[in-house]
């Protein structure tokens, strides 16, 4: 089982799906682009090589907000024509876990409310923005909610976080696990992850994948996730 390939395929399929549903998806000579108007996500360009015409990046950066070029495995070569035109915006760690049963600590403490209405989508979008500092429009969330499982996470009547999952084959991708600042350092992220791992076991999914920030990586490692590759996200200077 090639964990890196399965992880990247899940993520790329997600970007493609949301762009096809709500925006603009294109594949030109192996360079793929996924963009949504009035959104800061995914607004992504990716390819298996760094042989990407600068004109594509420039055009997309002009038309859309928060344009990012994502490279998997290795950063852009300093010798590449693109290198002088880009800044490294962030790095993420591609990670995987083969799910097994976990303890039930905290399982009943949190409630996963799946987005099924426009009102739910608005709550999810606002909470996500509070956690991450940028926005996924409620219209995109609602339009794709039959294929992507978006969850508002509650402790009793208080909305304490967001997450969504996306399945490709028997692979469960976990994305956008976010806790607003006022609810952090209370163990909610760990409890959310344990619930999602249990869900994966119940649904007989063979693999869980995600892309972790440097800050979140220790949590995932503590839960048994293993690092497979690096993801480099660039912005145009």
Verbal overview:
The protein is α+β, with helices and mostly antiparallel strands. It folds into two domains: 3-94, no CATH class; 110-227, 3-Layer(aba) Sandwich (Aminopeptidase), CATH 3.40.630.30. It is 30% helix and 33% strand. The chain has six helices and eleven strands. It has helices at residues 3-22, 54-63, 118-132, 138-143, 188-202, 217-222; strands at residues 24-28, 31-35, 44-46, 68-72, 86-97, 110-114, 149-155, 158-168, 171-178, 207-212, 226-236. An eleven-stranded mixed sheet has the order 1-2-3-4-11-5-10-9-8-7-6, with helices on both faces.
Largest sheet: 11 strands, mixed
Major sheet: order of its strands? 1-2-3-4-11-5-10-9-8-7-6
Which CATH class of the largest domain?
Answer: Alpha Beta
Secondary-structure element order, as H and E? Answer: HEEEHEEEHHEEEHEHE
The helix/strand class is alpha+beta
Give the terminus-to-terminus CA distance: 38 Å
Q: Uncertain runs with pLDDT below 50, 5 residues or more?
A: none
Architecture (CATH level 2) name of the largest domain:
3-Layer(aba) Sandwich
Treating each run of at least 4 consecutive H or I residues as one helix, how many helices?
Answer: 6
CATH topology of the largest domain: Aminopeptidase
According to CATH, the homologous superfamily of the largest domain is: Gcn5-related N-acetyltransferase (GNAT)
Strand content: 25-35%
The portion of residues assigned to helices is 25-40%
Total domains: 2
Envelope shape: globular
Number of strands: 11
